[in-house]
Model the fold of this input.
Amino acid sequence: SAVISQKPSRDICQRGTSLTIQCQVDSQVTMMFWYRQQPGQSLTLIATANQGSEATYESGFVIDKFPISRPNLTFSTLTVSNMSPEDSSIYLCSQDRFTDTQYFGPGTRLTVL
Amino acid sequence: DAKTTQPPSMDCAEGRAANLPCNHSTISGNEYVYWYRQIHSQGPQYIIHGLKNNETNEMASLIITEDRKSSTLILPHATLRDTAVYYCIVRAGQNTDKLIFGTGTRLQVFP
Done:
């Protein structure tokens, strides 16, 4: 299985600020994905991070709120912008390494005060 | 929306087999059945997947009915560390296809 790391593992942020979450995989992958898991809920896909082009966002998620970068085949970032308490969630990245199986990172636990 | 239906919770005694059902009556011919689990506060962990044949690996077995409208994940000897939320997902077997998570089954393994 792939090794995926995320930074930070957790953070507590003030309302109105932004946080950038990093996702690093141990080898080149085609597809990377970002998910959100609100407290007590299942995972919801935010967007697909495409290398060399803009991310593809799911319904209900917009680039201004969740800008994503994918500068190369092993790295991606997700920024949660202008945060409110409703953004308190676990944010997870996953990768699909030329196979039909996605592997997930450990997640970033975000609390917004 | 998720294409699967699972019971919200199940209990299993340690050492016994845990059988987790999943209904996917609208599955398409090119869609696989995937199982993931999420142990508290961790990222989801891939368990197994299959198309129409039964599959077995070191973690579990996957039994898919002949009409492919339902499946069962079997943990042959459940341990306390298997306590987790188990997600059944249908997905086309392509790496560009996204995973749509449902609500899953919360499995509690007790001593």
In short: Chain A has a mean pLDDT of 92. Chain A has no helices and eleven strands. Residues 4 and 79 of chain A are 18 Å apart (CA to CA). The interface with chain B takes residues 1, 4, 30-31, 33, 35, 42-45, 48, 58, 90, 92, 94, 96-107, 109 of chain A (CB under 8 Å).
